[in-house]
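Make up an example, fold above all:
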Amino acid sequence: MKACIRSVYGSADVLQVRDVESPTPAGDEVLVQVRASSNDRGVWHMMTGFPLVVRPVIGLRAPKVQVLGRAFAGVVTAVGSAVTRFSPGDQVFGTTNAGSWAEYTVAPERLLAPLPPEVSFEQGATVGCSGTTALQAVRSGGVRAGQRVMVIGAGGGVGSFAVQLAALRSAGVTAVCGASKHDLVTSLGADEVVDYTREEVDARGPRYDVIVDCAGNRPLSLLRKALVPGGTLVSVGGEDHPGRLMQGFQWQLVRPIAGVFVRRRVRSVVAREGGEDLVELGRLMAAGELTPAIPRTYSLAEAPECMRYLAEGHPAGKVVIAIS
C-alpha cells in the first residue's frame, strides 16, 4: 500500500510517500481502508520528535511508528477476532496510533465510531482529535446558555469546533483570531471577533465567564483580567513556546495550580479519544449543527506539502488529506 512515512525525526523534508506492507489487525483491532485523514499539531510533533518530553512514547532516537497521521475516516475491510461492533463494509471514523496517512490502517475498536451516512469522509476525518478536544474543553468549562465565552485561537482546528459547540449551548461567543479568519469564525457562530494583532484579550476588562485558550501563548495574569470573578479558564494549547524539552506543554501542568492564587478556576484538557464523544460529534454533524471548516484538501502524494502548509503558520480550520 501507499503511505507517507519517515524513518527519522525532522521537517517535512524527511517525509516520503512510497509502498509499505499493509497492516494486519490484532484481536481487538479493525482494518480500515482510509478514505481521508487530517493534519494537526499533534502529527507535526510526531514528525519532528519535539518536544523531547514525548520521545519516550513515540521513540527515543527514531519513530516507533513510521507512518504519520492519527485522525481518519474510512471503510472497514476486516476485523479482529474480539471485535463486536463493526463488520467489513461499515463506514467508521476516529483515531489510530498506527498511522493514518496511508491507504490502510488498523485501529482499536474503542477508538472508532460509525460514520453517519450524512457525513462525508473528509468531514469525519477532522474530528477524531480536534473535535474531541473541543467538545471536552467546552464541557470542562461548564459552558451554558447565557454565558459569555471567549475562544482564543478560534480559527484553528480545535478553536473552530469550540466556537460552534459553545454557540450550540446558547452562549455568547467572542472569537480571538487574525483578521484573515474573521469571516470564518463569524460563519461558525461567533457573535464578535477580536483581532489579536490590534487588541489584547483583556483590553475591555473582565467580561467572560469562560475562556477556552487554544493558543497557550498568554500568561495567566493577563487572562484573569478578561475573566469575571469565579470565571473558568480552559487551557488546551501551549505549543508555540520555545524550548526543546516542553515547548509550552508545561502550561497544562502549571496553570491549574496557579489558578488557586489568582482566584480563577483553571482546567487543563488532554483529550480522551474515542467513546461516546465521537458518537456525539457524528450526531451533530449529521444534523447539520456542527460543520468542520476545511480550507484545503491534499492528495496522499501531496502529504509532505500538506505538512509544510501546516508548519508555515496557522491554517484556518482543518486541513485534510483525501486518500482513496
About this structure: The mean pLDDT is 92. The two ends are 11 Å apart (CA to CA). The chain has two domains: 2-126+294-322, 130-268. Residues 127-140 form the longest helix (14 residues).
